[in-house]
Amino acid sequence: MHARLGVLLLLCCISGMIITSCSAERDVNKMKSNSNQELSESERKAALKEIEPERIQAMNTTGLHILQQMGTKEKAGNNLLISPYSIAAAIGMAYNGSVGETRRQMAEVMGWLELEMEQVNASQAALQQLLTHPGKGIQIGIANSMWMKDGIPVEETYQTALQQTYEAEIRTLNGQPAQAKEEINQWVKQHTEGMIPNLMQEPPAKETLMILVNAIAFDGNWMAEFDPEYTTDDEFKLANGKALSVRMMQQKKQFQYSENEDWQAVRLPYGDGQMHLLVVLPREGRTLDEIQQKLLDDPKRLDRGSEYSLVELSLPRFRAEYGMNLKETLQQMGMEMAFDPYAANFTEMISPGPNLQVYIGQVLHRAVMEVSEQGTVAAASTLVGMAAGSAPPTDWTKMEVNRPFMVAVVDKSTGAWLFVGNVNQPEEIPSR
Fold it and tell me: How far apart are CA 316 and CA 235, in angstroms?
C-alpha cells in the first residue's frame, strides 16, 4: 500500500504602505512596476473595460468579512489591517489550479461564482495594470512569485497563466527549510520597500513543495499636506475608556465628505487624485463592528450624500501593523476543501499521481501602514470634481478622529480597496 504524500501549498500575501513625501529618497527601483509612467487615456479606458465591477465589490466585501472575523479573535484594542487586493491575488493564483468542488468553494467565498476563470484573470491583469500606473505622486509596486521545489510536475498551462496574468516570477524553493525561509523573507523585504522584513516567522514544513507569494508596496504623497507646525499632543479615547496621548495632525480644507447617524467619513486624496485614504469615524456610542456590518448589508451607503465640504480635520499620526494566518478564517467562511489533505483538488496546478495530494497548508498575511503629515503641496486639482453650477460650501464641518476608526486605501476609478483596517490604538511612527 502506497503512502499518500500531501503536497503542501503555502500562500503568502504581504503589503506595506507609507503615505509620505519621501519618495525621492526611497529606492523605487525595488518596486516591480513602472508606476512613474502614466497610462494614456485610451489605455486606462481599455483596462477599465476588462475589470468586472462585481469582482471589485466582491474583493472589498471579502476584505470586510475577514476584518470582522479577525476582530472577534483578537484582543479588544488591537489594530487590524489587511490588503483585500493582496489576499485576492494570492488566492487567485491558487484558484487557477483548482478543480470541481474545491474551485466552487473558493469562488463562493471570493465572490467569483458568476465569473468564468478567463474573466477573473482578465480582470486581475487589468486591475494590476491600473494600480501600478496610478499617476503622479504615488508609487505602487506589485510582485507575485511561485516558489517550487525541483522535480514538481507543475502543469504548463498553470505556470503560463501565472506568468501572463500575474506576471509571476518562477523561483526554486530551497530544499533546506531554514534557507527557504531566509530567501523568501528577503524577497518580501525587497518588494515591500523593507517594511516587512520577516513575513515567515517559522521555516516552511518539510513537505511544502510550493509557495505562492503576492507583495504590494505603496508610497504615496498627500495632495494637500498637513503642516507639522499644527500637529499637537492630544488624547485618543480607547475602546476601554482609557485615554492615549497621540500626535494629532490638523488641517482645514475642502474634502469629499459624508455623514449620517452612524458615522462621519472623509476622503483624503493623494497624488493627482487617482487614489484616496478613506477615514470612517463611528459616531459616539457606535462600534466599528456595527458600522462594518451596515456596509456589508449596503455597500453603497458609504457613497450616499458624499460631497465636497469644508472640513476641519484632526487625524492622528499613526502606524498600524498586523499579521495572521488566514486559514481558519477562510475555512469558517466556507473555503474548507482547499485545506483538506484528502479532499482538495488542485489537479490543474500539479499533475496528479498516486502519491500526490495538493492542498493549501497556510495563508500567511501581513500588512503595514504608516500615515504622517508630509505630502505634496495642494494644487488646483483639489477642487476638481465638484458638481457644475454648485455653490461653494461656506460652513466648516468638524471631524475629530479621536477614537477608534476605520481606514481604507481606495482606487478612485475602480473603487478597489488596496488596504482596509481598524485603528483602535494608533502606534507611534518610528524615526528613521
Answer: 10
- Taking alpha carbons only, the member of 191, 310, 219 closest to residue 35 is 219
> Which residues fall within 8 angstroms of residue 237, CB to CB, at 6 or more apart?
243, 244, 402, 403
Total number of domains constituting the chain: 2
Q: Which DSSP string do the residues of 50-108 spell out, in sequence order? A: HS-HHHHHHHHHHHHHHHHHHHHHSPTT--EEE-HHHHHHHHHHHHTT--HHHHHHHHH
Same domain, 202 and 350: yes
In a domain, 1, yes or no: no
Extended beta strands in 111-161, E state: 138-148
Does the predicted TM-score (pTM) go above 0.85? yes
Residues 254 and 204 placed together within one structural domain of the fold: no
Domain-embedded: residue 69: yes
* pLDDT tens track for 29-64: 344 444 446 788 888 889 899 998 889 999 999 999
The per-residue pLDDT for range 130-146, each reduced to its tens digit, is 988 888 888 888 888 88
